[in-house]
Design goal:
The complex is a heterodimer of chains A (about 180) and B (about 150). Chain A has about 180 residues and is an all-alpha fold. Chain A has a domain at about 25-125. Chain A has helices at about 10-15, 25-35, 40-50, 60-80, 80-95, 105-120. The termini of chain A are far apart. Chain B is mostly helical and about 150 residues long. Chain B has one domain (about 35-150). In chain B, about 55% of the residues lie in helices and about 0% in strands. Chain B is built from 4 helices and no strands. Chain B is elongated. Chain B starts with about 30 loop residues before the first helix and ends with a helix. The chains are: A mainly alpha (about 180), B mainly alpha (about 150). At the A-B interface, helix 2, helix 3 and helix 4 of A face helix 1 of B. Chain A: One of its GO terms (cellular component) is mitochondrial inner membrane. Chain A: This is NADH dehydrogenase [ubiquinone] 1 alpha subcomplex subunit 8. Chain A: Its main location: mitochondrion. Chain A: InterPro entries: NDUFA8. Chain A: Belongs to the complex I NDUFA8 subunit family.
Chain lengths: ~180, ~150
């Protein structure tokens, strides 16, 4: 493997946080409210990942995302556990790929519960597929300029004489 | 004893034979040409409208699924990043342990020769699939590589 000891890799303690112990249907059921509740953290993390293109630089942002999601699901468990589990079961059992369409009734019940208890509205169906503006304090990463080689051929000066071509046209297809 | 059969000339029925029905009998037509063309255009227009409604509904459904996936993507990515980096470190330690007795071996290089000379030393060069699974059993690699075919 091409990873030497000079490459900094975070230790196990830095990487160990409590992960979200939920299965796919539960994540799908909570997806819209979760995305709305943790919008800032999610955007910050994805911005970091896209800007720096290195998983090692965005560990703190990633931990913030996970803890925010964990908090959200804890709140759901405290307030809307029954409605949530009903919705999860519906998503899980109604279609092979967890479609939302067959579960609008249970979804409405869950949405109402979340609205009443957490004050969170369900965002529109295409909310997370839209373009959003993200306000952040994160400094813009430096742009890498073109590489300058010290021994590069200097090239002709701008005002170098350009005499007429001795042996025919210097342009193809333009004689 | 025989009686002489009375001769009788076959004659046409009175009033003459009926005409031979050689004339074409066209099927009864309910619609004229223009009506058929108009009906075709009308039905196509109606069907197109229904098709449009259906397309819109399908599009919305797909967009909703996509949107939900995007909403949980950061969380999944964060978790995956941690697991991935953890495994990379384990792989590196495993390689160091495995090649400890080989003289001149430097972890992450081929006897001291790195993959790239011009990148900074701290650059994380992500391993490919086979490299990532090199210290695990082939069955684990096979399972993960062909996971998409199992579902």
């Amino acid at each position: 493997m091409g990873i030497t000891h000079e490459v900094e890799l975070p230790t196990e303690e830095q990487l160990t946080v409590q992960e979200i112990n939920l299965s796919g249907p539960a994540l799908k059921a909570g997806a819209f409210h979760l995305g709305k509740a943790c919008e800032w953290e999610n955007n910050e993390f994805i911005l970091c990942r896209d800007e720096l293109k290195d998983a090692r630089c965005c560990l703190d942002e990633g931990k913030a995302v996970t803890s925010c999601a964990l908090n959200f699901f804890r709140k759901i468990k405290k307030t809307c556990a029954d409605e949530f589990m009903q919705y999860v079961h519906c998503l899980d059992k109604s279609s092979p790929d967890q479609q939302f369409t067959p579960c609008r009734n249970t979804q409405a019940v869950f949405d109402k519960c979340v609205k009443d208890n957490l004050g969170l509205d369900r965002p529109p169906y295409d909310y997370f597929a839209r373009v959003h503006v993200h306000e952040t304090e994160r400094p813009r990463p430096e742009k890498e300029g073109p590489v300058l080689y010290p021994d590069a051929t200097p090239g002709l000066p701008k005002d170098a004489p350009r005499p007429a071509a001795k042996y025919g046209s210097r342009y193809l297809w333009m004689w | 004893m025989t009686t002489k059969a009375e001769f009788k000339q076959d004659m046409p029925p009175p009033g003459g034979y009926k005409n031979i029905p050689y004339k074409r009998v066209p099927a009864k037509s309910f619609f004229g040409g223009w009506a058929i063309i108009g009906g075709y255009l009308g039905m196509t227009a109606g069907a197109s409208y229904l098709y449009y409604l259906n397309c819109k509904a399908v599009k919305i459904r797909q967009l909703e699924m996509h949107s939900a996936s995007l909403a949980i993507y950061p969380m999944l990515l964060a978790e995956r990043d941690r697991a991935y980096l953890n495994q990379l470190r384990k792989n590196r330690d495993e390689e160091t342990k495995l090649m400890a007795n080989v003289e001149g071996w430097k972890t992450g290089t081929w006897y001291g020769e790195p993959i790239y000379h011009t990148v900074p030393k701290n650059t994380l060069i992500e391993p490919n699939y086979q490299e990532f699974y090199v210290h695990s059993s082939y069955n684990d690699f096979k399972y993960r590589a062909h996971l998409a075919l199992l579902s």
